[in-house]
Specification:
By secondary structure, this protein is an all-alpha fold. It has 20 helices and two strands. Helix 4 packs across helix 17 and helix 6 runs antiparallel to helix 15. About 55% of the residues are buried.
Protein backbone atom coordinates (compact mmCIF):
# COMPACT_ATOMS: atom_id res chain seq x y z
CA UNK A 1 0.00 0.00 0.00
CA UNK A 2 2.82 2.40 0.86
CA UNK A 3 4.33 1.83 -2.61
CA UNK A 4 0.99 2.71 -4.21
CA UNK A 5 0.67 5.85 -2.08
CA UNK A 6 4.20 6.96 -3.02
CA UNK A 7 3.53 6.37 -6.72
CA UNK A 8 0.18 8.21 -6.55
CA UNK A 9 1.83 11.13 -4.76
CA UNK A 10 4.54 11.35 -7.45
CA UNK A 11 2.02 11.24 -10.32
CA UNK A 12 -0.39 13.81 -8.88
CA UNK A 13 2.44 16.23 -8.06
CA UNK A 14 3.85 15.82 -11.58
CA UNK A 15 0.45 16.53 -13.16
CA UNK A 16 -0.12 19.55 -10.94
CA UNK A 17 3.37 20.96 -11.44
CA UNK A 18 3.55 20.69 -15.23
CA UNK A 19 -0.09 20.96 -16.30
CA UNK A 20 -2.63 21.87 -13.61
CA UNK A 21 -0.70 24.78 -12.14
CA UNK A 22 0.11 26.31 -15.55
CA UNK A 23 -3.33 26.15 -17.13
CA UNK A 24 -5.05 27.32 -13.94
CA UNK A 25 -2.84 30.41 -13.68
CA UNK A 26 -3.03 31.18 -17.41
CA UNK A 27 -6.84 30.93 -17.51
CA UNK A 28 -7.34 32.93 -14.32
CA UNK A 29 -5.09 35.74 -15.57
CA UNK A 30 -6.55 35.65 -19.08
CA UNK A 31 -10.18 36.05 -18.00
CA UNK A 32 -9.29 38.59 -15.33
CA UNK A 33 -7.58 40.78 -17.93
CA UNK A 34 -10.21 40.25 -20.68
CA UNK A 35 -13.02 41.28 -18.33
CA UNK A 36 -10.97 44.15 -16.92
CA UNK A 37 -10.94 42.37 -13.56
CA UNK A 38 -14.61 41.51 -13.23
CA UNK A 39 -13.97 40.36 -9.64
CA UNK A 40 -13.31 44.00 -8.68
CA UNK A 41 -15.14 45.88 -11.41
CA UNK A 42 -18.49 44.20 -10.82
CA UNK A 43 -18.19 43.40 -7.12
CA UNK A 44 -20.86 46.00 -6.26
CA UNK A 45 -23.10 44.38 -8.88
CA UNK A 46 -22.58 40.97 -7.27
CA UNK A 47 -23.62 42.37 -3.89
CA UNK A 48 -26.58 44.19 -5.44
CA UNK A 49 -27.82 41.06 -7.17
CA UNK A 50 -27.60 39.01 -3.99
CA UNK A 51 -28.82 41.42 -1.34
CA UNK A 52 -30.57 44.40 -2.92
CA UNK A 53 -32.75 42.92 -5.66
CA UNK A 54 -35.48 40.36 -5.76
CA UNK A 55 -33.00 37.80 -7.08
CA UNK A 56 -34.51 35.12 -4.88
CA UNK A 57 -37.63 35.10 -7.01
CA UNK A 58 -36.45 36.81 -10.18
CA UNK A 59 -38.05 35.62 -13.38
CA UNK A 60 -39.72 32.81 -11.44
CA UNK A 61 -42.12 30.90 -13.65
CA UNK A 62 -45.37 29.32 -12.60
CA UNK A 63 -43.49 26.04 -12.41
CA UNK A 64 -42.69 25.82 -8.70
CA UNK A 65 -40.27 22.96 -9.31
CA UNK A 66 -37.56 25.32 -10.59
CA UNK A 67 -35.17 26.73 -8.03
CA UNK A 68 -34.24 30.36 -7.57
CA UNK A 69 -30.81 31.91 -8.22
CA UNK A 70 -30.46 32.31 -4.45
CA UNK A 71 -31.09 28.61 -3.86
CA UNK A 72 -28.61 27.72 -6.60
CA UNK A 73 -26.08 29.99 -4.88
CA UNK A 74 -26.65 28.28 -1.53
CA UNK A 75 -26.33 24.81 -3.07
CA UNK A 76 -22.96 25.72 -4.59
CA UNK A 77 -21.87 27.52 -1.41
CA UNK A 78 -22.52 24.33 0.57
CA UNK A 79 -19.74 22.64 -1.41
CA UNK A 80 -17.41 25.65 -1.28
CA UNK A 81 -17.82 26.21 2.44
CA UNK A 82 -17.09 22.59 3.27
CA UNK A 83 -14.07 20.88 4.75
CA UNK A 84 -11.89 22.72 2.25
CA UNK A 85 -12.47 25.94 4.18
CA UNK A 86 -11.52 24.33 7.48
CA UNK A 87 -9.63 21.02 7.19
CA UNK A 88 -8.25 21.98 3.76
CA UNK A 89 -6.72 25.18 5.11
CA UNK A 90 -5.26 23.27 8.04
CA UNK A 91 -3.69 20.75 5.66
CA UNK A 92 -2.24 23.57 3.55
CA UNK A 93 -0.62 25.14 6.63
CA UNK A 94 0.58 21.81 8.01
CA UNK A 95 2.25 20.77 4.73
CA UNK A 96 3.12 24.10 3.13
CA UNK A 97 3.47 26.35 6.17
CA UNK A 98 1.72 29.68 6.85
CA UNK A 99 2.88 31.04 3.48
CA UNK A 100 0.41 28.72 1.73
CA UNK A 101 -2.40 30.95 3.01
CA UNK A 102 -1.18 33.89 0.91
CA UNK A 103 -1.16 31.78 -2.22
CA UNK A 104 -4.67 30.59 -1.38
CA UNK A 105 -5.80 34.22 -1.23
CA UNK A 106 -4.05 35.16 -4.46
CA UNK A 107 -5.44 32.17 -6.35
CA UNK A 108 -8.93 32.88 -5.04
CA UNK A 109 -8.74 36.49 -6.24
CA UNK A 110 -7.81 35.59 -9.81
CA UNK A 111 -9.80 32.38 -9.76
CA UNK A 112 -13.04 34.22 -8.97
CA UNK A 113 -13.04 35.34 -12.62
CA UNK A 114 -13.17 31.67 -13.60
CA UNK A 115 -16.24 31.21 -11.41
CA UNK A 116 -18.00 33.92 -13.42
CA UNK A 117 -17.05 32.30 -16.72
CA UNK A 118 -17.95 28.69 -15.99
CA UNK A 119 -21.26 29.45 -14.25
CA UNK A 120 -22.33 31.91 -16.97
CA UNK A 121 -21.60 29.35 -19.68
CA UNK A 122 -23.47 26.73 -17.70
CA UNK A 123 -26.49 29.04 -17.60
CA UNK A 124 -26.15 29.78 -21.31
CA UNK A 125 -26.18 26.10 -22.27
CA UNK A 126 -28.53 24.80 -19.56
CA UNK A 127 -31.24 22.40 -20.67
CA UNK A 128 -34.94 22.55 -19.94
CA UNK A 129 -36.31 19.41 -18.27
CA UNK A 130 -39.92 18.55 -17.58
CA UNK A 131 -39.89 20.17 -14.16
CA UNK A 132 -36.54 21.91 -13.84
CA UNK A 133 -33.36 23.15 -15.50
CA UNK A 134 -30.12 21.22 -15.52
CA UNK A 135 -26.66 21.57 -16.99
CA UNK A 136 -22.97 21.86 -16.26
CA UNK A 137 -19.63 21.67 -18.07
CA UNK A 138 -20.53 18.45 -19.89
CA UNK A 139 -23.37 20.32 -21.57
CA UNK A 140 -21.40 23.42 -22.58
CA UNK A 141 -18.65 21.14 -23.87
CA UNK A 142 -21.12 19.10 -25.90
CA UNK A 143 -23.31 21.92 -27.25
CA UNK A 144 -20.72 24.71 -27.23
CA UNK A 145 -17.72 22.81 -28.57
CA UNK A 146 -19.56 19.85 -30.12
CA UNK A 147 -16.93 17.51 -28.65
CA UNK A 148 -18.83 14.55 -27.22
CA UNK A 149 -15.66 12.65 -26.29
CA UNK A 150 -14.49 15.53 -24.12
CA UNK A 151 -17.90 15.91 -22.47
CA UNK A 152 -17.95 12.17 -21.68
CA UNK A 153 -14.43 12.38 -20.25
CA UNK A 154 -15.44 15.30 -18.05
CA UNK A 155 -18.52 13.46 -16.77
CA UNK A 156 -16.51 10.37 -15.85
CA UNK A 157 -13.85 12.45 -14.10
CA UNK A 158 -16.31 14.46 -12.04
CA UNK A 159 -18.16 11.33 -10.91
CA UNK A 160 -14.87 9.78 -9.77
CA UNK A 161 -13.46 12.97 -8.23
CA UNK A 162 -16.46 14.64 -6.65
CA UNK A 163 -19.12 12.02 -6.06
CA UNK A 164 -16.72 9.27 -4.96
CA UNK A 165 -13.33 10.46 -3.70
CA UNK A 166 -14.22 13.99 -2.57
CA UNK A 167 -17.15 12.56 -0.63
CA UNK A 168 -14.77 10.04 0.93
CA UNK A 169 -12.64 13.00 2.07
CA UNK A 170 -15.70 14.64 3.58
CA UNK A 171 -16.75 11.56 5.54
CA UNK A 172 -13.13 10.88 6.52
CA UNK A 173 -12.92 14.32 8.09
CA UNK A 174 -16.20 13.88 9.95
CA UNK A 175 -15.02 10.52 11.31
CA UNK A 176 -11.71 12.01 12.50
CA UNK A 177 -13.47 14.96 14.14
CA UNK A 178 -16.06 12.78 15.90
CA UNK A 179 -13.37 10.34 17.03
CA UNK A 180 -11.32 13.14 18.62
CA UNK A 181 -14.32 14.94 20.14
CA UNK A 182 -16.64 12.13 21.24
CA UNK A 183 -14.38 9.05 21.06
CA UNK A 184 -16.88 7.65 18.57
CA UNK A 185 -15.69 4.63 16.53
CA UNK A 186 -15.27 5.51 12.87
CA UNK A 187 -17.54 2.73 11.64
CA UNK A 188 -20.40 4.11 13.78
CA UNK A 189 -19.91 7.51 12.15
CA UNK A 190 -19.89 5.77 8.77
CA UNK A 191 -23.20 4.02 9.39
CA UNK A 192 -24.78 7.24 10.64
CA UNK A 193 -23.66 9.12 7.52
CA UNK A 194 -24.82 6.28 5.27
CA UNK A 195 -28.37 6.63 6.62
CA UNK A 196 -28.51 10.44 6.73
CA UNK A 197 -27.00 10.95 3.28
CA UNK A 198 -29.29 8.27 1.88
CA UNK A 199 -32.34 10.15 3.17
CA UNK A 200 -31.14 13.37 1.57
CA UNK A 201 -30.09 12.12 -1.86
CA UNK A 202 -33.18 10.02 -2.49
CA UNK A 203 -35.22 13.24 -2.33
CA UNK A 204 -33.70 14.87 -5.42
CA UNK A 205 -32.41 18.41 -6.01
CA UNK A 206 -35.35 20.09 -4.29
CA UNK A 207 -34.75 18.28 -1.01
CA UNK A 208 -31.01 18.95 -1.39
CA UNK A 209 -31.72 22.66 -1.97
CA UNK A 210 -33.99 22.86 1.08
CA UNK A 211 -31.49 21.06 3.34
CA UNK A 212 -28.52 23.17 2.25
CA UNK A 213 -30.58 26.36 2.47
CA UNK A 214 -31.00 25.59 6.18
CA UNK A 215 -27.64 24.04 7.04
CA UNK A 216 -25.20 26.34 5.23
CA UNK A 217 -26.21 29.74 6.67
CA UNK A 218 -26.47 28.22 10.17
CA UNK A 219 -23.04 26.65 9.93
CA UNK A 220 -21.38 29.76 8.51
CA UNK A 221 -22.88 32.03 11.17
CA UNK A 222 -21.85 29.73 14.04
CA UNK A 223 -18.31 29.26 12.77
CA UNK A 224 -17.76 32.93 11.99
CA UNK A 225 -19.14 33.95 15.39
CA UNK A 226 -16.58 31.81 17.21
CA UNK A 227 -13.82 32.87 14.80
CA UNK A 228 -14.64 36.54 15.39
CA UNK A 229 -14.46 35.98 19.15
CA UNK A 230 -11.00 34.43 18.81
CA UNK A 231 -9.75 37.10 16.40
CA UNK A 232 -10.91 39.92 18.69
CA UNK A 233 -9.18 38.24 21.65
CA UNK A 234 -5.92 38.14 19.68
CA UNK A 235 -6.25 41.38 17.76
CA UNK A 236 -2.87 42.50 19.15
CA UNK A 237 -1.23 39.60 17.29
CA UNK A 238 -2.84 40.34 13.92
CA UNK A 239 0.12 42.23 12.44
CA UNK A 240 2.47 39.48 13.56
CA UNK A 241 0.28 36.82 11.90
CA UNK A 242 0.17 38.74 8.62
CA UNK A 243 3.95 39.13 8.80
CA UNK A 244 4.35 35.36 9.32
CA UNK A 245 2.09 34.59 6.35
CA UNK A 246 3.80 37.02 3.97
CA UNK A 247 7.34 36.24 5.07
CA UNK A 248 6.76 32.52 4.60
CA UNK A 249 5.08 33.09 1.24
CA UNK A 250 8.18 34.85 -0.16
CA UNK A 251 10.80 33.79 2.37
CA UNK A 252 14.42 33.51 1.32
CA UNK A 253 14.80 30.61 3.73
CA UNK A 254 11.97 28.70 2.06
CA UNK A 255 13.46 29.43 -1.37
CA UNK A 256 16.91 28.25 -0.30
CA UNK A 257 15.46 25.10 1.23
CA UNK A 258 13.64 24.31 -2.00
CA UNK A 259 10.26 24.40 -0.27
CA UNK A 260 8.87 27.55 -1.88
CA UNK A 261 7.43 25.54 -4.77
CA UNK A 262 5.71 23.23 -2.31
CA UNK A 263 4.22 26.21 -0.48
CA UNK A 264 2.85 27.75 -3.68
CA UNK A 265 1.52 24.46 -5.04
CA UNK A 266 -0.14 23.50 -1.77
CA UNK A 267 -1.76 26.93 -1.50
CA UNK A 268 -3.13 26.70 -5.05
CA UNK A 269 -4.42 23.13 -4.66
CA UNK A 270 -6.18 23.86 -1.38
CA UNK A 271 -7.56 27.12 -2.77
CA UNK A 272 -9.11 25.18 -5.64
CA UNK A 273 -10.53 22.55 -3.26
CA UNK A 274 -11.96 25.31 -1.11
CA UNK A 275 -13.57 27.64 -3.66
CA UNK A 276 -13.79 25.27 -6.68
CA UNK A 277 -13.32 28.17 -9.12
CA UNK A 278 -12.38 26.60 -12.45
CA UNK A 279 -12.87 23.02 -11.32
CA UNK A 280 -16.25 22.71 -13.04
CA UNK A 281 -18.36 21.71 -10.05
CA UNK A 282 -20.36 24.81 -9.09
CA UNK A 283 -21.71 25.28 -12.66
CA UNK A 284 -24.01 22.31 -12.05
CA UNK A 285 -25.83 24.28 -9.36
CA UNK A 286 -25.70 27.48 -11.40
CA UNK A 287 -27.50 25.81 -14.30
CA UNK A 288 -30.52 24.82 -12.22
CA UNK A 289 -31.80 28.32 -11.54
CA UNK A 290 -34.14 30.51 -13.55
CA UNK A 291 -32.88 34.02 -14.23
CA UNK A 292 -33.12 36.68 -16.91
CA UNK A 293 -29.47 36.71 -18.03
CA UNK A 294 -26.72 34.04 -17.85
CA UNK A 295 -24.16 36.42 -16.37
CA UNK A 296 -26.28 37.09 -13.28
CA UNK A 297 -25.74 33.59 -11.96
CA UNK A 298 -22.05 33.82 -12.86
CA UNK A 299 -21.65 36.98 -10.80
CA UNK A 300 -23.50 35.49 -7.86
CA UNK A 301 -21.31 32.39 -7.96
CA UNK A 302 -18.19 34.56 -7.86
CA UNK A 303 -19.47 36.02 -4.62
CA UNK A 304 -19.38 32.49 -3.22
CA UNK A 305 -15.65 32.34 -3.96
CA UNK A 306 -15.07 35.49 -1.92
CA UNK A 307 -17.12 34.17 1.00
CA UNK A 308 -15.38 30.80 1.11
CA UNK A 309 -11.81 32.01 0.49
CA UNK A 310 -11.51 35.46 1.99
CA UNK A 311 -13.85 35.01 4.95
CA UNK A 312 -14.16 31.38 6.03
CA UNK A 313 -10.67 30.22 4.96
CA UNK A 314 -9.06 33.30 6.48
CA UNK A 315 -10.85 32.70 9.77
CA UNK A 316 -9.50 29.14 9.87
CA UNK A 317 -5.97 30.35 9.16
CA UNK A 318 -6.17 33.02 11.87
CA UNK A 319 -7.53 30.53 14.43
CA UNK A 320 -4.60 28.19 13.78
CA UNK A 321 -1.88 30.84 13.71
CA UNK A 322 -3.23 32.78 16.70
CA UNK A 323 -3.26 29.60 18.80
CA UNK A 324 0.46 28.94 18.63
CA UNK A 325 -0.16 25.20 18.16
CA UNK A 326 2.67 23.41 16.39
CA UNK A 327 1.13 22.98 12.93
CA UNK A 328 3.78 20.38 12.02
CA UNK A 329 2.57 18.11 14.81
CA UNK A 330 -1.05 17.85 13.63
CA UNK A 331 -2.80 17.72 10.27
CA UNK A 332 -6.26 18.30 8.89
CA UNK A 333 -9.19 18.73 11.21
CA UNK A 334 -7.19 17.68 14.28
CA UNK A 335 -5.07 20.81 13.90
CA UNK A 336 -8.17 23.03 13.88
CA UNK A 337 -9.61 21.22 16.89
CA UNK A 338 -6.41 21.67 18.88
CA UNK A 339 -6.14 25.33 17.87
CA UNK A 340 -9.70 26.28 18.74
CA UNK A 341 -9.52 24.42 22.07
CA UNK A 342 -6.78 26.86 23.08
CA UNK A 343 -9.36 29.66 23.14
CA UNK A 344 -12.72 28.15 24.03
CA UNK A 345 -11.48 25.29 26.19
CA UNK A 346 -12.39 21.64 26.13
CA UNK A 347 -15.58 22.27 24.15
CA UNK A 348 -13.49 23.37 21.18
CA UNK A 349 -13.14 19.86 19.82
CA UNK A 350 -16.88 19.21 20.15
CA UNK A 351 -17.77 22.53 18.54
CA UNK A 352 -15.54 21.91 15.54
CA UNK A 353 -16.86 18.36 15.22
CA UNK A 354 -20.42 19.69 14.94
CA UNK A 355 -19.38 22.42 12.49
CA UNK A 356 -17.49 19.89 10.38
CA UNK A 357 -20.51 17.63 10.34
CA UNK A 358 -22.73 20.47 9.09
CA UNK A 359 -20.10 21.54 6.55
CA UNK A 360 -19.35 18.11 5.20
CA UNK A 361 -22.92 16.83 5.20
CA UNK A 362 -24.07 19.75 3.06
CA UNK A 363 -21.08 19.21 0.77
CA UNK A 364 -21.67 15.47 0.42
CA UNK A 365 -25.24 15.84 -0.77
CA UNK A 366 -24.26 18.69 -3.09
CA UNK A 367 -21.42 16.63 -4.57
CA UNK A 368 -23.88 13.77 -5.00
CA UNK A 369 -26.09 16.09 -7.05
CA UNK A 370 -23.16 17.19 -9.22
CA UNK A 371 -22.34 13.57 -9.93
CA UNK A 372 -25.97 12.69 -10.62
CA UNK A 373 -26.16 15.39 -13.27
CA UNK A 374 -23.31 13.69 -15.10
CA UNK A 375 -24.70 10.19 -14.68
CA UNK A 376 -27.87 11.37 -16.40
CA UNK A 377 -25.78 13.07 -19.07
CA UNK A 378 -23.97 9.81 -19.79
CA UNK A 379 -27.33 8.08 -20.05
CA UNK A 380 -28.30 10.66 -22.70
CA UNK A 381 -31.53 11.42 -20.88
CA UNK A 382 -33.25 14.67 -20.03
CA UNK A 383 -34.86 12.96 -17.07
CA UNK A 384 -34.00 13.89 -13.53
CA UNK A 385 -34.30 12.19 -10.18
CA UNK A 386 -37.78 13.63 -9.64
CA UNK A 387 -39.00 12.62 -13.09
CA UNK A 388 -41.14 9.49 -13.28
CA UNK A 389 -40.63 9.20 -17.03
CA UNK A 390 -37.28 7.43 -16.61
CA UNK A 391 -37.16 3.93 -18.07
CA UNK A 392 -36.04 0.87 -16.10
CA UNK A 393 -32.41 0.94 -17.26
CA UNK A 394 -32.10 4.65 -16.34
CA UNK A 395 -33.64 4.01 -12.93
CA UNK A 396 -31.27 1.08 -12.35
CA UNK A 397 -28.24 3.20 -13.29
CA UNK A 398 -29.37 6.07 -11.06
CA UNK A 399 -30.09 3.87 -8.05
CA UNK A 400 -26.80 2.04 -8.55
CA UNK A 401 -24.98 5.37 -8.59
CA UNK A 402 -26.70 6.39 -5.36
CA UNK A 403 -25.62 3.25 -3.53
CA UNK A 404 -22.05 3.55 -4.86
CA UNK A 405 -21.92 7.11 -3.47
CA UNK A 406 -23.16 5.83 -0.12
CA UNK A 407 -20.52 3.08 -0.22
CA UNK A 408 -17.74 5.66 -0.74
CA UNK A 409 -19.16 7.79 2.07
CA UNK A 410 -18.95 4.76 4.35
CA UNK A 411 -15.53 3.73 3.00
CA UNK A 412 -14.15 7.24 3.54
CA UNK A 413 -14.63 6.97 7.30
CA UNK A 414 -12.26 3.97 7.33
CA UNK A 415 -9.58 5.18 4.87
CA UNK A 416 -6.31 6.81 5.88
CA UNK A 417 -6.11 10.60 5.73
CA UNK A 418 -3.11 10.53 3.37
CA UNK A 419 -4.65 8.19 0.78
CA UNK A 420 -7.96 10.07 0.82
CA UNK A 421 -6.38 13.43 -0.03
CA UNK A 422 -3.99 11.97 -2.61
CA UNK A 423 -6.85 10.40 -4.58
CA UNK A 424 -8.75 13.65 -4.36
CA UNK A 425 -5.80 15.75 -5.59
CA UNK A 426 -5.11 13.37 -8.48
CA UNK A 427 -8.61 13.44 -9.94
CA UNK A 428 -9.10 17.12 -9.12
CA UNK A 429 -6.10 17.96 -11.33
CA UNK A 430 -7.47 15.98 -14.29
CA UNK A 431 -10.97 17.42 -13.86
CA UNK A 432 -9.73 21.01 -13.66
CA UNK A 433 -7.51 20.68 -16.74
CA UNK A 434 -10.44 19.29 -18.74
CA UNK A 435 -12.79 22.10 -17.68
CA UNK A 436 -10.30 24.93 -18.20
CA UNK A 437 -9.48 23.68 -21.67
CA UNK A 438 -13.18 24.02 -22.53
CA UNK A 439 -13.41 27.50 -20.98
CA UNK A 440 -10.57 28.76 -23.15
CA UNK A 441 -12.21 27.42 -26.30
CA UNK A 442 -15.54 28.99 -25.34
CA UNK A 443 -14.06 32.34 -24.31
CA UNK A 444 -15.57 34.27 -27.25
CA UNK A 445 -19.08 33.16 -26.34
CA UNK A 446 -18.59 34.13 -22.72
CA UNK A 447 -17.15 37.53 -23.62
CA UNK A 448 -20.16 38.18 -25.87
CA UNK A 449 -22.70 37.65 -23.07
CA UNK A 450 -20.42 39.58 -20.71
CA UNK A 451 -20.35 42.62 -23.03
CA UNK A 452 -24.10 42.28 -23.61
CA UNK A 453 -24.71 42.49 -19.86
CA UNK A 454 -22.39 45.49 -19.44
CA UNK A 455 -24.09 47.40 -22.25
CA UNK A 456 -27.55 46.83 -20.80
CA UNK A 457 -26.36 47.96 -17.36
CA UNK A 458 -24.88 51.13 -18.88
CA UNK A 459 -28.26 51.96 -20.42
CA UNK A 460 -30.00 51.50 -17.07
CA UNK A 461 -31.78 48.28 -18.03
CA UNK A 462 -32.31 45.11 -16.06
CA UNK A 463 -30.25 42.76 -18.28
CA UNK A 464 -32.30 40.24 -20.24
CA UNK A 465 -30.89 37.67 -22.63
CA UNK A 466 -32.54 36.30 -25.79
CA UNK A 467 -30.94 33.57 -27.84
CA UNK A 468 -31.50 35.41 -31.14
CA UNK A 469 -28.61 37.63 -30.03
CA UNK A 470 -26.37 34.66 -30.83
CA UNK A 471 -27.92 33.29 -34.06
CA UNK A 472 -25.00 30.98 -34.91
CA UNK A 473 -25.56 28.91 -31.76
CA UNK A 474 -29.21 29.71 -30.99
CA UNK A 475 -30.36 26.18 -31.84
CA UNK A 476 -28.20 24.87 -28.99
CA UNK A 477 -29.60 27.31 -26.39
CA UNK A 478 -32.46 25.10 -25.34
CA UNK A 479 -33.63 27.05 -22.29
CA UNK A 480 -33.69 30.61 -23.65
CA UNK A 481 -36.43 32.44 -25.53
CA UNK A 482 -36.02 34.06 -28.94
Amino acid sequence: MQTFISLLNFVQEWIWTYFGFTILIVCALYFSVKTKFVQVRLLPEMVRLMFFTDIKNENKSDNSATISPFQAFIVSLSSRVGIGSIAGVATAISVGGPGAVFWMWLMAFFGSALAVVESSLSQLYKRRGKSNYFGGPAYYILYGLRKRWLSILFSILIILDIAFFANSAQSNTIALAFSAAFDLPKYITGIMLFLLVGFAIFGGIHRIAKITETIVPTMVILYLAVALYIIVNHIDKSLLVFHIILSNAFGIGEFAAGSLGTIILMGIKRSLFCNEAGEGTAPHAAATSETSHPLKQGLIQALGVFISSFIVCSCTAFIILFSGVDFHQYNGIELVQMAISKDIGLLGKEFIAIIIFLCAFGTIITYYFYGESNVLFLLKTNANSDNKTMNNSEKFALYSYRFIVLFFVLLGTLMSLELTWLLLDFFMALLTICNLFALLLLSKQFLFIFDDYIQQIKHGHNPVFHKNKMPKISKFLDAWKQ
